[in-house]
Amino acid sequence: MATMDGLKLYAIFVPDIKNFLETKDFWALKRLLSDISPLDLAEGWHEFLSQEQLVLFRLITINKAVQLFEELDDKDQEFLLQNIREANIESWTPQLSLEERHRLFGAVGVRYFKRLQAKARKKRLPIFTPYSGDWPEHSTGALMQHEYFCVDMNWKASVTLERLKATARLRNVGELYALYVTEAQNKLLGILSLRTLIAAPPDSKVGDIMWPVGLLKLRPEMDQEETARMFTRYNLTSLPVVDQDNKLVGTVTVDDIINVVHQEATEDIAKMAGTTPDELTNKGIGRVIVLRMPWLIITCGGQFLVSHIIKNFEGTISRFIALASFMPFIAAMGGNIGTQSSTIAVRALATGEWMMSDFRRSIQRELLVGIGLGVIYASLAGLLAYWLYGARFGALFPMIVSMGMFTSMSIAALLGAVEPFIFSWFKIDPATATGPLVTTLTDLISVTTYLSVAAWLLR
Q: Looking at the structure, do residues 257 and 336 belong to the same domain, yes or no?
């Protein structure tokens, strides 16, 4: 709040304004208002009576009226809208921010404004017809902001900066990261960062200091997760959104992307756990049970299959009952390394660090990791098996455990890396099925390979 030695700034001009209002000297009042900042006037707005507020609002310029209106409280905004003539409203409300327009004319609910809205639609006025498009919920079109600053490539830097100062308001300047250079019909030519504009010589032309757009632009139909990957890859703060004719229709800023990244991360974590993000906000036990049930059914079916496999090796297990004591150990190690590989693959695909073209390289990498860890833990498992059962079964039993551990971990690591690519190939979100499916399949593989190796060696 503006102050002078502890005195609120509006206290200086309020008495003069009151005096001009009482004497009805509107010409002098208008000259005085031209020297007062809309932000300072908003601070002292409560000092005036309702009718005085209407007079003041009619006397200030359209640009200042917009700035003042956006700084006022909701009840003061509603009062002005209810008591200003339609013609005056139609003259300055198009300059309001899009969010402000939606809030006022969508939430006030006054019959008068419903009629005004219908009238504006009939006349095709810009106040109610901003570009939006009917974009899906998680698309870039639904994410983008519809307000941006366009400049001409022939403007000088000094002129551009002055016009920016005259246009920008405190409410929206916080989201201003770049200016967009356009030509006829709003076709995008380039991007001009604020840093470049401020540092440029005053007489330099915008066309000489702008960046050509190139491929750094978005389409409204793009998935918001793909947009987030572009921001991450190129370390951007904002990107323009264009239609098929290269017309600028909106912009996406890093502030919007932060929300997307948080949302997508929460969604992926929930999916990998076999549930949905709804569980985080849903407190109903019945609803949570329904959300978790589908993938648990698959897990349950997989474990029934594991039991059936164990039953088929009943003869082998009955001859060497000690085999059963290492089954949970081997299954757990296979499951863990499979989950690690799948988590890395899912995350790398989601962030764009891995593409479908990286399939062979990533598979080789995870297979070598699985083999390396398999050798280490197979040796440890073999030593443990020899220590526990070496005196009874000799060197054969530790060899079985070691080979079972090595085979289980190697195959599980390979499977964990392959599955996300397979799901991506079929246009299925890898995070949806990878977690529960990898756990189940690695259990199947671990138990099968372990008992198969045991039966082969014992035979």
A: no
Examine the domain organization and report whether 180 and 318 are in the same domain: no
What's the pLDDT tens digit per position in 104-136?
554 443 444 445 445 544 443 333 333 445 678
- Tell whether 189 is covered by a domain: yes
The total of structural domains in the chain comes to 3
Q: Which residues contact 90 (CB under 8 A, 6 or more apart)?
A: 120, 125, 127
Q: Are residues 413 and 312 in the same domain?
A: yes
In a domain, 278, yes or no: no
Q: What is the pTM of this model?
A: 0.49
Statement: residue 65 has pLDDT above 90: no
Question: What one-letter code names the amino acid at 297?
Answer: I
Give the SS3 label for residue 213.
coil
| Chain-centroid distance, C-alpha 214 | 24
The order of strands in the sheet holding 211-212 is: 150-151, 178-182, 188-193, 211-212
What separation in angstroms does the CA of 328 have from each of 110, 335, 358, 405, 447? 68, 10, 34, 11, 9
The CA angle 176-182-187, to the nearest 5 degrees, is: 120
CATH code at position 352: 1.10.357.20
Residue ranges making up the domain that contains 17: 3-123
Domain co-membership, 51 together with 119: yes
Do 344 and 254 lie in a common domain? no
Q: Angle, to 10 degrees, between the axis of helix 10-23 and the axis of helix 26-34? A: 160
Q: Please give the DSSP secondary-structure letter assigned to residue 178.
A: E
- Domain end point (choices 90, 123, 156): 123
Q: Which residues contact 214 (CB under 8 A, 6 or more apart)?
A: none
C-alpha dihedral (289, 293, 299, 302), degrees to nearest 10: 130
Task: Write the pLDDT tens digit of every residue in 137-191.
Answer: 778 888 888 777 888 899 899 988 887 776 665 445 556 788 889 887 788 999 9
Does 46 lie in the same domain as 17? yes
Cα torsion 321, 322, 323, 329: sign: positive
Buried b / exposed e over 60-71, threshold 16 CB at 10 Å, is beeebbbbbbbb
